Each structure stands twice: as C-alpha cells, then as structure tokens.
Amino acid sequence: xxxxxxxxxxxxxxxxxFACTTKQEVIDGGVASPYYDGTIMEYLRSNSEQWGxxxxxxxxxxxxxxxxxxxxxxxxMTFFAPPSFAVYRYVMDCKYDGVSExxxxxxxxxxxxxxxxxxxxxxxxxxxxxxxxxxxNMDYAIYAEEQDGGTxxxxxxxxxxxxxxxxxxxxxxxxxxxxxxxxxxxxxxxxIPLATPNIQPKNGxxxxxxxxYDFGKI
Length: 218
What we know:
Shape: globular
C-alpha cells in the first residue's frame, strides 16, 4: 500500500509539473469542433479518459438532471469543468492523506452532499462564452480593489470567480497576439488553471480546467 501511494504521488507530481500553469492550454476535449450535438452530460460521458471521474462525481451528487438540461430553473449553464485526473487526485488524497476527517476509498463512499457541494462550485447559471468575458484592466492585478475589468460570476455553490481576457504579445508587440482566457477564484484567492474554453454542448458551455487544477479549491 505504501509503495502504491508513492507511485501515485510520483505520477501526480510529474503531471502537475507539466500542467499547473495558469495560462490557457489546449487539452483533448474529445471534439474537433467547439460544438457538440448533445447535452453537457452526454459530452462528458463521451470521453471517459478525460472526464470519467468527473462523471462519477456528478452522478454521485445526484446532479445528472442538471447536466442533462432537465432542470427548469437552469435551462443553460456554464461549467468550469475539472478533468478526471484532478478529481482522481482528490479521491486519492481522501484515501491516503485524509483531506477531511474521514478517509474515502472511492467516490461511491463519499457523502452525496459533499459531492454536490464540490460540483456546484464549478457551475454558473446561464451560458457565458469566452466572447462574453471582459478584458482585464492591465493597470491593475486581477485581485486589486481598483480592478474594473473581467467578468465576475457567483457559482451555484456560492463561491465567486473572475473570468478575464488578455491579449498576448506578438513578435515583441504588446497586446498584438492571440486572446487568452484566465480564471481567478475570489473565494480561494488563487488562479485557476484553464485549459480549453468554449466547448459548446446543447445546454450550455464547458470551459475545461487544466490537469493541474486542485479540485474543489475554486
């Protein structure tokens, strides 16, 4: 068991080293086009490698109807989607390190309310694409009181995040490059690593988070 723990920790560290950047990076979302002909839940289920543990957490939380678009009060939603590996790493932390008072061997052993709380921290009512997000006022850090740019969201889980855009430097020319999207958690006070924005199933939009995301700390 101790050897297994060392292997898992080593694997996590290797992946996090490559994935913990807060800069937007592309991951395999399972679709070549940003549009997906199905619900968010169907999209997640279509790629078990990328979203397997995420789907298990949603199902354990009893939130399948929400992600299927069958909740009248949430006809469309924005999902800052934690990848399967981030959820898996959280479960392993629960199992070996006890991130809470109890140690859980699997998602099936976790309290439904805890799973629901964790997932709803990533859900915003309404569909907000990258194009709907405001640019950061470059005169101030995103967390500065003077900051009047970006777009602030309150998730269903009552945590608050700020999504914002920045334009890259191109050939030494400031703000002449590609436009990138970033995510900052006001509640936790840290950047949230974003991978691929604007994946669009029928009932909303998925902004995929990076593998290095520390699940739940949003």
